[in-house]
Amino acid sequence: MEKFVTLTGVAAPLPLINVDTDMIIPKQFLKTIKRTGLGVNLFDEMRYDQDGSEKPDFVLNKPAYRDAKVLVAGDNFGCGSSREHAPWALLDFGIRCVIAPSFADIFYNNCFKNGILPIVLPQEEVDKLMDDAERGANAILTVDLESQTITGPDGGCIAFEVDPFRKRCLMEGLDDIGLTLEKADAIAEFEARRAQTAPWLGAA
């Protein structure tokens, strides 16, 4: 998993509440088990017409936001079914941070496991960042995970909270497999000891 320390990039505004995982990545794209290739289908039904052409009014289709790295969204983002493809699609598009007043629990947890930082802020602070994001290509935010701050285009700074364990995992690029591999020596010692004390367990 790629480390997340400091992120600077364009923030895209998505002022919608209750954006569910089927809106983020519709069910017909859940056939793959690969984490790549889903970015093109992110917000598919909002981004494209039935003939596959882009809807020019959708935010991520606008030239200023095509390379957005931050998404500023409404309340209860990521609700609905517990599909891990939702953070996969965001990450594959290039979005590594989502800021909202609240998130659905499973989506929130899945973000951390896939290298995305979900930030919960009070509505009034989200509104400020939403205003910043409306500036198009000038909507540059810097998210500093170490200092837990978001700096806006005018230099204003907003602090955010994050669980210390999850913060460490993101900063060190540790997913569940990476956390397990940190204990590789202890696991190897245990297996060697068990092979001597209970050799019949490894006979199969």
What can you see in these coordinates?
There is one protein chain. This protein is of the alpha/beta class. It has a single domain, classed as Aconitase, domain 4. 32% of the residues lie in helices and 16% in strands. It is built from 8 helices and 7 strands, in the order βααβαβαβαβββααα. It has helices spanning 21-24, 44-47, 85-93, 105-113, 123-133, 164-172, 176-181, 184-197, and strands at 6-14, 70-73, 97-100, 117-120, 140-144, 149-151, 157-159. It has a 7-stranded mixed sheet with strand order 4-3-2-1-5-6-7. The model has no long low-confidence stretch (mean pLDDT 92).
Unreliable parts: none
Strand residue content: 15-25%
The mean pLDDT is 92
N- and C-termini, Cα separation: 34 Å
Name given to the CATH homologous superfamily: Aconitase, domain 4
* Strand arrangement across the biggest beta sheet: 4-3-2-1-5-6-7
Q: Note the run of SSEs as H and E.
A: EHHEHEHEHEEEHHH
Number of helices: 8
Could you estimate the helical fraction of the residues in percent?
25-40%
Top CATH class: Alpha Beta
Shape: globular
Give the radius of gyration.
20 Å
Structural class, please?
alpha/beta
- Tally of strands: 7
- Going by CATH, the architecture would be Alpha-Beta Barrel
SSE blueprint and pairings:
Blueprint: E1 6-14, H1 21-24, H2 44-47, E2 70-73, H3 85-93, E3 97-100, H4 105-113, E4 117-120, H5 123-133, E5 140-144, E6 149-151, E7 157-159, H6 164-172, H7 176-181, H8 184-197
